[in-house]
Amino acid sequence: MPSASRKSARSRKRTGRAAADEGKVRKEFWLDPEALAEAQAFLGTATERETVEVALELVAFRRDLASGVRALRDMALTRID
Predict the structure, then answer these.
(1) pTM of the prediction?
(2) Is residue 79 part of a domain?
(3) pLDDT tens track of the chain, all 81 residues?
(4) What is the per-residue DSSP string for the chain?
């Protein structure tokens, strides 16, 4: 059973790295360093971790974009000007 001091430490507001990691999971991957460096340069990210996170966000954005295009595909559009 956790002591009172541990419990209060957990209930305090988290700051710094601990706050940045909240809601995330630790994973270990073997990645091609050249591909990672190329992606980092293209995305303009500061760290390899940020590069992977932005790349994953782009995948989700691509999925949302494709979903939107499919929804618009069968709509009858008219000009408004």
Answers:
(1) 0.62
(2) no
(3) 455 555 444 444 555 666 667 788 888 989 999 999 999 999 999 999 999 999 999 999 999 999 999 988 888 888 888
(4) ---HHHHHHHHSPP-HHHHHHTT---------HHHHHHHHHHHT-SSHHHHHHHHHHHHHHHHHHHHHHHHHHT-------
* Residue range(s) defining the domain that contains residue 33: 4-73
Decide: 54 and 43 in contact? Cβ < 8 Å.
yes
d(CA 12, CA 16): 13
Q: Is residue 19 part of a domain?
A: yes
